[in-house]
Amino acid sequence: MYNSSESGYTDFLTYNIADERFEEIYYLNKFIDIMRDINNVDVLYEEMKTVFDSKEEYLEKKYKWIRDDFSNINPNYSGKASEIIREKAIELFGNYENWVAAYNENQNKFTFVPAHEVEILRIKKSQENIKPKPALNMTEEEVLNSSWGEPDDINVDYYTWGTTEQWVYSSRGYIYFENGVVTAIQER
Fold first, then answer.
1. Cβ of 9: how many Cβ atoms within 10 Å?
2. Over its length of 188 residues, how does the chain's per-residue pLDDT go in tens digits?
């Protein structure tokens, strides 16, 4: 992937951090890579033919992969070589609308983000992925959404005043509930 401290880079959170110039450089590099694949399809098949049952199967998959790569290029791109890119995309997708649909579907996976917004997104994403440890007074639902998640086994006792449960986590320990609320945690 193209990397320049002056223009932008790809973040491991699937954001392209970019100034205005990077987006054009990215699209041009992506197009060059796609054209290299298209122009070397026979050579690449020779290297991969042991993996596929037939050349037709290989070509079907290869052109699907090429279309997938093309779905990273914005159909509204109007910079350098945009007419050539558009012509090739229409040839590969059958029409402009199919390219737009593939691009729009791909936007859930890949986005350009201005550099000044990246740290905010990193913090937000890391907070979404952090689950709390189980704690006293949590409900069963809160424990299920905690870092311990689903138990390996549940032992339930019924009494006239309510229920007690022991949730067994083979590698972590035990969580005890009375009437659906955590009353004790035993870690291994």
1. 15
2. 333 344 444 444 444 555 556 778 888 888 998 898 888 888 778 877 777 888 888 888 888 888 888 888 889 888 888 999 999 999 999 999 999 998 888 775 556 666 677 777 777 777 767 888 999 999 999 999 998 999 999 999 999 999 999 999 988 999 999 999 999 999 98
Query: How far from 127 is each of 58, 110, 121, 131, 132, CA to CA, in Å?
Result: 42, 20, 10, 8, 10
Same domain, 99 and 155: no
Please indicate, yes or no, whether residues 118 and 147 belong to a single structural domain of this protein.
no
Same domain, 87 and 163: no
> What is the four-CA torsion angle of 40, 42, 46, 50, rounded to 10 degrees?
110
Residues of the domain holding 38: 8-128
In a domain, 152, yes or no: yes
- The residues with which 9 forms a beta bridge, in sequence order, are 17
Strand partners, 173: 169, 187
Are 15 and 97 within one domain?
Answer: yes
pTM of the model: 0.49
Contacts with 62 (C-beta within 8 Å, 6 or more apart), sequence order: 37, 41, 44, 45
Query: Are both 150 and 70 inside the same structural domain?
Result: no
